[in-house]
Structure formats: structure tokens, C-alpha cells
Amino acid sequence: MGEVGKFFAMILALVGPPPADSPKEFQLKPGDQIVAIGDSITQFGGYVRDIDAVLAKQYPELKIPAIINKGISGQKAEDLVARFEKDVVALKPAYVTISIGINDVWHRLGQPHDENVLAAYRTNVAKMVDMAQKAGIKVILLTPTLCLEDPASEGNQRLAKYVQAEKQIAAEKKCQVVDLNGIFLAALKQKPAGQVTWLTTDGVHMKPMGDAVMAVGILQALGVPDAKIAATDPPK
User: Fold this and answer.
1) Strand-pair category, 138-142 with 95-99
2) How far apart are CA 187 and CA 151, in angstroms?
3) What is the value of pTM for the model shown?
4) I need a surface site. Which of 133, 192, 212, 216 has the fewest CB within 10 A?
């Protein structure tokens, strides 16, 4: 492993070992297609490219196709559910990752928290899980990451309610959930003093480190051993 290859090893040290309930074996089968649906964080594609790089390097014999990126900037849960049939179900993937919730909070920070908005978010995410499961698609919910790199910010305080809603949906519908929010909050405890933005460019959109944190959380949820992640060079 060269100098560049140490990048994911550094990220793994930041993220820590996979949760106890993570799969013990690699979950993907030969040719399994993944669709990633979400907002601008998905559209920019950093974490998606990181996942592709690890899967291509570590499991070449499985010929896993590149993840289909269905992220659209600025979208909220109500936007995703409206296009979920066309952008996910119709493609018949083996897996879908659903990453949504940041804009549902961030774009409304100028207004008081609204329980009706939260309820609609919960309904829309649950509908997407139902649609995927009915079509035989395995779901991995990604809890929304951060609203500023300050755990005490108003955005992060509100975001906690949306994170909890996703965890409840995952428990009710027996689908996987990757608590990216929890991973990021834990990582921020190691943030160097004096840095306003460390994992993100603006408190929301990811720097390469933030993308890699997301990717590691998802790869662990797919059962990729940490040693294989660490042994991969990030995409150039």
C-alpha cells in the first residue's frame, strides 16, 4: 500500500470499527447493481466514486457495475418520492441507498421547526422503502449527515428528529440503516482546533474526507472488511 493508500486507513481510524450489527460477510453478489438516490451530496458523487473504487479493486471477479447516481441538487424527501419509481424501481437494482434530509432541515432554518414537515418527511421516506421492498430491492437508509460542523447548531438539533425518524422506519420495515449522522458527530470530536470546516466545504457539502467518511459507513454496511477498505487507493 503506497502513500496514497493510507487515506482510507486514516478515515477508518476516524470512523472506528463497524457497528456490532453490521454484516459479517460481503453482501453483494456478482453483477449486483446499486442505485444511489439523494440530493446534491449524492449528485456531486464523491462518496459514490469512493465506494466504486473499493468494490472494483477488492472484488473484480464479481464484476459489480458502477453505482447509478440519481442525486439531484436541492431536493427534499417529497422530491425523491415523486421520482422514485422512474429513477429507482424501473432500473431494477439489487440495492438502493437513500440519502435525504439535509435540505428538509437546512432550507427551512429561517422558520420554526414544524412537526407537520417532519411527519411528511417520515411518510415520504417510508413510501420509498415500501416501493423498493415491493419490487424486491434491498434498502439502505443513510441518515442525513450534518447541518454545520457544530453539533450544537440549530440545524443539527433539528436534524436529530429526522435521523430518529429514519431509524424508526428502518426498525419497522426491517431494512438497513447507516447512521452517518452519528458517525459524523463522533468524528467531529477529533476535529483539529481552529478549523471551522474540516469534513465539509460549507457545513453541508463534503470535502474528500467527508465523502470518504460516508463511503466507509456504507461499505461497512455492505460487509466489506476494513482491511480491504484500507488497502484501496481513493479515486483520482
Assistant:
1) parallel
2) 11
3) 0.96
4) 192
